[in-house]
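User: Teach me something about this protein's shape.
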Amino acid sequence: MGIEHLIGVFLICCGSFLGPGTGVDEASLHGCPPTPNCVSSQSFRYNYIHKIDPIIYSMPKEKAYQYLLERFDGMENVYVAEKKENEYIRLVFFTKVFRFPDKVEFYLEPDKKEIQVRSQSIFGLWDIFANRIRVSGIRSYLNSKEEPLPEPEAL
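Assistant: First, the predicted structure itself:
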């Protein structure tokens, strides 16, 4: 294998590390790199590799923000890197064994009851569906905090 191949493999493996930044730009989270180690609710509609549904909630926006923040603040292997009141949260998860960092972002849209989410493994080509599983767990947690709708009264 020539030096060109080694450089190519290195760039592909570290492509997500050099990939898109974090934060909200023009009311949207940054996109995913081409590697399958990232999921985003704001990926292209037909991009099945990266596409995941946004988290839908019915509670007040402030309450949804607080539940998310309470869930991760002080949690083992999670660092709250950035937060903007009732708008944006950026977390860094660390894997238990090797301490690899993963970035997770939440953007609470101003006029919708949706939380746009982006989860990306920083190192490697593939995350073995860890980001999808993580977002699914967060979605389940937030859904468990929803107040049940009142039962309709019998006439």
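Now, about its shape. The two ends are 78 Å apart (CA to CA). The CA atoms of residues 6 and 105 lie 32 Å apart. If you'd like, I can walk through any region in more detail.
User: That's plenty for now, thanks!
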